[in-house]
Prior knowledge:
Strand order of the largest sheet: 1-5-2
Low-confidence stretches: 123-128
Number of helices: 6
Number of strands: 5
Structural class: alpha+beta
Distance between the termini: 108 Å
Order of helices and strands: EHHHEEEEHHH
Shape: elongated
CATH architecture of the largest domain: Alpha-Beta Complex
Amino acid sequence: MEARASAKYLRGSAQKARLVIDMIRGQNVNKALAILRYSNKRAAVGIEKCVKSAIANANEAAEKANIAVDPDELWLKAAYVDRGPTKNRSRMRPAPQGRAYRERRHFCHVTVLVSSDKQDSVADGKSGETTPAVSRRAKRGGAAAAPRARRGASRAEAADSAPAKGPARGETKAAASKKEAKGEKKSGKTASKLSKVLRRKKTEE
């Protein structure tokens, strides 16, 4: 047995109401009401009324269907917050030096779904809470899901992992091999010159 209740045009932004909704999602009804009762958030008052309305809707639906439902066994299967209207709902607040700050009045819509089905079929069975959903970034993959590189990686490791340099842009492999051969010849010439200079010094001595 499932029952739904919604509270529309609640004062406050949807972002602030979601902080309260996240605390009670997947919890037992009695535990959720206790959390809302002793919460310091302003949105908790309207959400508490919405949860009580969902419980009453579940009892009424059970009576109509001639099904016995214990209100203490109900739990919050789903709870979400939608953004309400903010257009043409701004006010001006006085500010220093004759200025004015614009203050927007946000509203939100809260929807709660209460169920009497066994919670173990939906939850993982260990903690009695629903499994967390995987974020979109992790599903998408790429840089968001890839592990970060170590901070202490040395330059030598980076050089080893770097691929070997190929021919330059617009240059064939044959031209690149010629350049390499020229470099080797130059290094050989410099070595021979050094050896000649050393021989001369020895003979002079």
